[in-house]
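Exercise: predict the fold of this chain.
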Amino acid sequence: MNDYHYIKEKLYKDSNFLLEDKPLVFKKLIKNPSDLLTWDDIERCINTPEFFNFDIIDKETNDKIKIPEYKKAWVFNKFVQDKEFIVEKVTQGHTLVINNFGFYNKETNKFLAIIESLFYTDAAMHVYCGLTGSKSFTVHEDIPSNFILQIEGITAWTVYENRSSSIVASGYRPTEKEALNFKEALTVDLEPGDLLYIPSRSYHVAKPETKRLSISIPCWPKFNEPKEYSSNREYYTINHNT
């Protein structure tokens, strides 16, 4: 069982986001990362595709591979992605992304509840997983600030001082030549239980060194949105033994 009081205290004490926004690493923050995610969980998600949305990152081009979709009986008003195709691509060494994993179990909700209680944000959770030889995206930036939690394996991360301005469109990927001129702000090999913080729109890149499981936690500012859009992190149970 993870000590969530310790996690919350450590995140609060070792960061100072009011006065500076820089990449940070919290080593061995999570004692039992497998409480949040295992390969069995990956298989359950793939085999219930009507409840999840998947992306696959090509190990050769680092771009997304289109996943075939079809209509499924008793799943109305949406297409379902082909689970056989997904398993085939993962087995071939491509990276699988499972989007919107945050409500999966008690532990994922507890962890996001910590982030949302400490910071003025609504957080999500996406899974990145791949066998040995899988790749991630090339150097890029993301609009939301992001926490990366390593669950299994080792991934080399570089976060740059270079950022994309909020007055230009997001999504640009620098060329290799452009990236060579970037200045490194932080480099780290993330190991199981480590947490990395990436500031909003900071250019960064991940290079998995082994088979890996990791979790991405993008954080959007609340912007005083209506209550109906807020996350409810309580895990409700039914007293069915009466």
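Check your answer against the key: Helices lie at 4-13, 39-46, 83-91, 106-118, 176-180.
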